[in-house]
Write a structure and sequence with these properties.
Elements lengths: L1 H47 L13 H7 L2 H33 L5 H9 L6 H12 L4 H7 L14 H26 L3 H9 L4 H29 L2 H8 L10 H10 L3 H34 L1
Helix pairs in contact: 1-12, 2-12, 3-7, 3-9, 3-11, 4-7, 5-10, 7-9, 9-12
């Protein structure tokens, strides 16, 4: 009995030492995350609930109500949502199609791969310069369409402006998404595909029943990554059009950048909190969908 009790005490002591050692190893990372992410976010939440940084009077949801009633915020939110709803599905679907195409035996496969990966090596400023040359009122695209008798368009000041930015977004992001899908496709068990071939399954059936099932975690990751990148398209739009672009290109980042310049910390903090909540809800829904469709694969 005494020996059993002694062994149990030694087990608890060893468990405690392992737990303490684990916390010590995690402490630097946790402090870094807390310092640069958790504490700043809590400060933003605090600023969104007060009237100004001097008096610090709590107004609770007044800043959020004022923000939602702001017309510029509504326009920016609508434009951002519309852009994301168009650009993100296109980025996921097109990159998956390219990866599936490159998985087959086609001529000039390495050249295709290089073509789609080359935008990753080009700085944002250079990309914007290319787009300015292409879509300027006197640029290459207008010169091309005028050959067929069409009139030139001021692309960045027209209803086509968001289409131009969507093309830019896709050109910049398809290559990286394609690499992720190609890596995931290479990890699908070959015996499953061979069995499907023996049983007479066609390419479409294999795609739906096998490949998409095993690609569900990568689909989730690529979708989240593309969603985050769609919210970061402000860099390109800002360099192309400045602080106040054409109406359809006025994004949430423009709104937040402009109110930051006016030192309106309360509306800025409220906008950041709402944006965070929206992102968390969207990502949570994506995780639920992926868990539903990928559960049988994990089992």
């Amino acid at each position: 009995m005494k020996s059993k009790l002694k062994n149990f005490v030694e087990f608890l002591n060893k468990k405690s030492r392992d737990t303490i050692n684990g916390f010590l190893w995690l402490a630097p990372s946790f402090l870094g995350v807390a310092m640069f992410y958790i504490v700043p976010f809590l400060v933003i939440v605090y600023y969104s609930l007060i009237d100004n940084p001097i008096r610090h009077n709590f107004v609770f949801f007044d800043n959020f109500i004022t923000l939602v009633q702001n017309q510029a915020f509504r326009v920016a939110t609508y434009n951002t949502l519309k852009f994301s709803l168009v650009a993100v599905p296109l980025a996921v679907v097109l990159s998956l199609m390219i990866a599936l195409m490159l998985e087959t035996r086609i001529p000039l496969k390495s050249y295709f791969r290089t073509f789609f990966l080359s935008p990753l090596m080009v700085p944002v400023a250079s990309v914007v310069l290319i787009w300015q040359v292409l879509f300027h009122p006197n640029g290459a695209v207008n010169e091309f369409i005028m050959v067929f008798g069409a009139r030139g368009i001021d692309w960045m000041q027209s209803e086509y402006s968001q289409v131009v930015v969507v093309i830019l977004f896709l050109w910049k992001n398809l290559g990286f998404n394609m690499i992720l899908f190609m890596a995931a496709l290479s990890n699908i068990p070959r015996e499953l595909l061979e069995t499907a071939d023996v049983e007479g399954a066609g390419p479409f059936r294999k795609l739906i029943s096998i490949k998409l099932r095993y690609l569900s975690p990568t689909l989730l990751f690529v979708t989240i990554l593309s969603l985050i990148n769609s919210f970061k398209v402000f860099r390109e739009v800002y360099l192309l059009t400045g602080d106040y672009p054409y109406g359809e290109l006025y994004m949430l980042q423009h709104f937040m950048n402009n109110i930051f310049r006016s030192l309106d910390y309360q509306r800025l903090a409220a906008a950041a909190v709402l944006m965070t909540i929206a992102m968390v809800i969207i990502i949570a829904v994506l995780f639920i969908v992926e868990n539903h469709f990928g559960k049988d694969v994990e089992e």
